[in-house]
């Protein structure tokens, strides 16, 4: 720790700083997560500001790095679509200019390619009175996973899932 940084962080801050540095060393954290944790530990706003400045300056916290990891994990492991990931990042307080730039790096076809196996598996277990009802359930499933209507339509076309024209016009 630099001497000038040590002067701005008081003895009262040291205990909380140690906990937050340890937390950020173990896993990626966004600013909101760390602020929430400090609040639970009883840190006032001024302490939080000093500690956050130190953690950001020393790169314990990096919003872009956090966002890249979050997007990767939710896309690859949870199979979430762009919309759901954007909403989760918004709830985490990640700035829109950071998240949209990272999400824009992912090609539109990649989202559709990820949705196809999900819809294929869901189609096997989806029951309905007719093709229209089944396609409605599959569209709701896809949208609930955070995919757009156009991505859901493209994936359903790729799987040759018959959907009534009315079904697609609704969206």
What does this structure look like?
With 171 residues, the protein is mostly helical. It contains eleven helices and no strands. It starts with a helix and ends with a helix.
Radius of gyration, taken over Cα atoms and rounded to an integer in Å: 22 Å
Gap between N and C termini: 55 Å
Low-confidence stretches: 1-7, 164-171
Helical residue percent band: over 70%
Query: H/E order of the elements?
Result: HHHHHHHHHHH
Could you tell me the mean pLDDT?
A: 89
**Alpha-beta classification:** mainly alpha
Q: With helices defined by DSSP (H or I, 4 residues minimum), what is the helix count?
A: 11
Shape designation: elongated
Percent strand equals under 5%
Describe the biggest sheet? none
How many DSSP E strands?
Answer: 0
Give the secondary structure arrangement, pairings included:
Layout: H1 3-8, H2 11-26, H3 31-40, H4 45-57, H5 63-76, H6 82-91, H7 96-104, H8 108-125, H9 131-144, H10 149-158, H11 165-169
């Amino acid at each position: 720790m630099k001497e000038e940084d040590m002067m701005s962080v008081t003895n009262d801050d040291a205990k909380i700083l140690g906990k937050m540095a340890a937390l950020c060393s173990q896993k990626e954290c966004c600013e909101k997560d760390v602020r929430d944790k400090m609040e639970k530990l009883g840190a006032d706003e001024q302490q939080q500001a000093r500690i956050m400045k130190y953690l950001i300056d020393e790169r314990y916290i990096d919003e872009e790095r956090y966002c890249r990891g979050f997007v990767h994990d939710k896309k690859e492991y949870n199979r979430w679509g762009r919309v759901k990931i954007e909403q989760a990042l918004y709830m985490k307080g990640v700035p829109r200019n950071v998240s949209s730039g990272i999400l824009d790096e992912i090609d539109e076809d990649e989202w559709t390619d990820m949705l196809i196996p999900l819809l294929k598996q869901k189609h096997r277990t989806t029951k309905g009175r007719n093709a229209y009802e089944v396609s409605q359930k599959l569209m709701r499933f896809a949208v609930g996973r955070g995919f757009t209507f156009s991505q859901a339509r493209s994936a359903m076309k790729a799987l040759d899932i018959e959907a009534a024209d009315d079904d697609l016009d609704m969206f």
